[in-house]
Amino acid sequence: MLRKLSTVRVNLGKLADFSSEIIETYYMDRFEKFYNGNENYNFGVATKGMVSREYRNLPIFTALMTKVFEMYCDYQVHFGFGNSNFHLLPLHEYYGHRRIGKNIVEPNLGLMASFVMLPDDIHYLQKVNSPFLRTALAKRKIQNDQVADWFKVEFPETASIINSQLVTQEKFWIILGFKLGDAPNKVMPVLQGLTVIEAEKFLHSCGVIVQCPKGDYIVTREDACQEVNILLSGTLQSSGINNISPGQHFGAIGLANRTKHIANVTAVTDAEILVLSFHYFQKFRRSYPKIANKVLHNLTNMHDEQGKGE
Which CATH number covers residue 153? Predict the structure, then answer.
């Protein structure tokens, strides 16, 4: 019997081939400026990527996305777009995708981050140790600085995004402390009882910082939860809890087990959140069981406290 292991939808074409919604989502009209009237180009959009549940511990999704990267190279795609739930952002940043600062809501999937791939930027793929590097060297052969330099000039706002693959453990801790106004272990209940070194290792291994502009529906009731969300800065409004303070979690707790959100949470102002990923916590738990057990104990207490508040 033929069984589908994984799938992804890829669309290639000029700006006019895409809907206005897709163009707006990925700022494609801004990216078209790079070509300066030259129509010898293709944009790429890869979405709906998924793997059958029983094969998610195998590198099938990486093999699938490598094929997408090969298509980008073969069809002269300089900019390939996609989106992801926040808890999978470290995986896509490992591939070499760069966030472009636009979040979108997908029905049944919730808030998603938008990103772009620059197949010509071989140096960047080397920096993040991308699994696509071998393909890039074979297909592109040499670095195209023109694409990378143009992107930095056209999208200066992306310089403030903290890439999970390019920040060290020590630097990540410092950044979080700056945003929180104090050391993370002093304001985050999830870190209670951990040493500074243990807390640094846990946050760096499982966390990613995400910017959420004013008006973003960060959490929607009944959406899947595969993370723990912690407020770093800004103001949030929740249907389930009042006065969410920096360092405090919001929404459901989906770090140890997948669950569903039970409240709606919206960004009242521009906000930044720390997203602790279910998928990366599973890996961390196998490598550092003692630290993970401390975290799980704290999560149980947090869940009990949340229940009392409701």
Answer: 3.40.630.30
The CATH code of the domain that includes 243 is 2.60.120.10
- The count of domains in the chain is 2
194-217 core/surface letters (b: 16 or more CB in 10 A; e: else): beeebbbbbbbbbbbbbbbeeebe
3-state DSSP assignment of residue 228? strand
Number of Cβ within 10 Å of residue 169's Cβ equals: 13
- φ, ψ of residue 97 to 5 degrees: the values are -70, 150
Place of tokens 């919206």: 266
pTM of the model: 0.92
What is the spatial distance between Cα 33 and Cα 28, in angstroms, rounded to a whole number? 9
Q: What is the pLDDT of residues 164-176, one digit of tens each?
A: 999 999 999 999 9
Considering the domain boundaries, does residue 1 fall inside one? no
**Burial (CB count <10 Å: 0-12, 13-18, 19+), residue 286:** exposed
For range 277-286, the mean pLDDT:
96
